[in-house]
Amino acid sequence: MRILVTYAVQGEFTELKFPGLIGEEEVHVGYLRTGVGKVKSTYYLTEVINQGQPDLVINVGTAGSIDRQVGDILVCRHFIDRDMEKLANLGVEYEIDSSALLAEKGYCMHWTGEGVCNTGDTFLTELSDVKGDVVDMEAFAQAFVCRAKKVPFIAVKYVTDIIGQNSVKHWEDKLADARKELGEFFEKIGGVVK
């Protein structure tokens, strides 16, 4: 089994530990730093999927929130593109749910802590009308690419900051905590298939 772990910036990199075998399959984990934003994320992820054909993509990283607590970890299978949501009246797609393909393959269904990830090309520093539990700048784009390529996708986000409360500074201060606690989360979940 080939698992591709994506993250936006080096400060978010977390080496994940999965059991050596899933069923009778050996597990190979690769990592991709996508850069910040939907365009870079889409481009680099598409290139790697075309070359490496992963069985599963896991986006791991940090996120802001309006109503969650710093330190919360959310497992996201539902994604909103806040930039395209503004064009919903024109019939533009702005929501993706990756649950069906994950369920079809039997991947990550036992991971708890469900949340909705709202993606946009801006780093939110002020409260606004945002749907979802956490905000980031890459997950919707990656979910879109994975759906097009028929690769199961899931995102696991650590809340580093509360939007409107010095978000940039809190994000920088919480990166070490995010890496540590995300690593512990993946050690505890017991793998991809259960």
UniProtKB/TrEMBL annotation:
Single GO molecular function: methylthioadenosine nucleosidase activity
Native organism taxonomy: Bacteria, Pseudomonadati, Bacteroidota, Bacteroidia, Bacteroidales
One record GO biological process: L-methionine salvage from S-adenosylmethionine
Gene Ontology CC annotations of this record: cytosol
Limits of the Nucleoside phosphorylase domain: 17-185
Protein name, as recorded: Adenosylhomocysteine nucleosidase
Record SUPFAM superfamilies: Purine and uridine phosphorylases (SSF53167)
UniProt cross-references to Pfam families, sorted A to Z: PNP_UDP_1 (PF01048)
